[in-house]
Structure formats: structure tokens, C-alpha cells
Design brief:
Number of strands: 5
Structural class: alpha/beta
CATH architecture of the largest domain: 3-Layer(aba) Sandwich
Radius of gyration: 17 Å
Strand content: 5-15%
Number of domains: 2
Number of helices: 10
CATH topology of the largest domain: Rossmann fold
Helix content: 40-55%
CATH superfamily of the largest domain: HAD superfamily/HAD-like
Strand order of the largest sheet: 3-2-1-4-5
């Protein structure tokens, strides 16, 4: 079986609201930054590999001039938000049981580079697809097809774990058995 994992909230934390709340006591600031940064179209465009962090920082500072210093600091330290979670401990077990590991993640270049440089668990994977490299994000069906084609995988021999339901639905439409990830228990190892 081929185990395909999303990365954010499946292998590493991705909790922008918590990240903001740890840094700001002002709930208005938290909400404005959440809406105008992490839930913005630009965040998605960066996952598509079409904006870098410097460009995003400028856009967000222009959008939220009252929080310019805070936005600069947040964007400078955005990679601090991504910390491995317990699912990572299952990867060697899955691999030693004879299964193959792949990743499929919506992610920006700089965050991808940070994860690859900082954490060795990605070395356990046979390969995968980062959205920034392909300029396509989930749930676009093309990204699932690309992964299958790139590694010559049969959809029926794959199981995909993602924390976002629309991504699961899209994978299932491509014939990939999928599990909505909530905890490491979902993986079954």
C-alpha cells in the first residue's frame, strides 16, 4: 500500500490562530491578521508558488499598516509554526511494514525549504508533490493525477490522509481511498 500524507496538521502543526494568540493579547489584532494574512488569497497564491515571503510581507503590511511591525515579525518567524506531531513517529513503522510513503501538500517554497532542511522525517518518503513546485493546489484534481503519474501509482493501491475534507473528497474522486485526518489514530499504526 502507498501511504500519502498531507503535511500541515497531519505531520506538522499548522495553527495560525494559536500562533497569533500566543503573540497578541488584542483579539482584534488576532482576527484582523488571521483574516488578512493566513486566510487571504495571497496565502493560497504562495502555496501555488506564485508569491514569495517578501512579496507577501509587503502586501500584508500595505493592507494592515497599523500592524506593520507585527506583520513583519510574524512573516519573519512564520516557520516557527511548523513543528512535527505524533504522526511522524508512525512513519518508520509504516515503512518497515513494507508500505511506501509519499507526501502531497499545499505549501509555499520557503516553508517547504524550512521543513526539508530542519526535519529528517521527509527522508523516509519515496517522494511526493509540493504544490509550490507544480503551481497547482489541492483540491484541483490535476495535483492528485500528477502524483499518481509521477510515481506510477495505481489509485486503488493508495491511501491518502488530509485534514481538510474537500481535499479528501477530491482524492476519492480520483479513486484514492482517503481518510479525514483528526489524530494519529486515523492512520491505523
Amino acid at each position: 500500500m502507498n501511504y500519502i500524507f498531507d503535511i500541515g496538521n497531519v505531520l506538522v502543526t499548522y495553527e495560525p490562530r494559536k500562533f497569533l494568540e500566543e503573540r497578541f493579547s488584542d483579539k482584534t489584532a488576532v482576527e484582523l491578521i488571521m483574516q488578512n494574512v493566513y486566510l487571504s488569497d495571497e496565502w493560497q497564491i504562495a502555496d501555488e508558488g506564485k508569491l514569495n515571503r517578501a512579496e507577501m510581507t509587503k502586501i500584508f503590511c500595505d493592507r494592515l499598516p497599523q500592524y506593520k511591525d507585527e506583520v513583519v515579525n510574524l512573516m519573519k518567524n512564520v516557520t516557527d509554526m511548523f513543528i512535527p506531531i505524533e504522526t511522524v513517529e508512525l512513519l518508520p513503522k509504516i515503512k518497515s511494514a513494507g508500505h511506501t510513503l509519499y507526501y502531497l501538500s499545499n505549501i509555499a517554497f520557503d516553508i517547504r525549504d524550512h521543513l526539508v532542511a530542519k526535519y529528517d522525517f521527509l527522508n523516509l518518503f519515496e517522494g511526493g508533490v509540493f504544490s509550490c513546485d507544480e503551481r497547482i493546489i489541492k483540491p484541483n484534481p490535476e495535483i492528485y493525477r500528477l502524483l499518481l503519474k509521477k510515481y506510477n501509482l495505481n489509485a486503488s493501491d493508495c491511501i491518502f490522509f488530509d485534514d481538510i475534507e474537500r481535499n479528501i473528497v477530491a482524492a476519492e474522486k480520483e479513486g484514492i481511498k482517503s481518510v479525514l485526518f483528526t489524530t494519529a489514530d486515523c492512520v491505523g499504526f
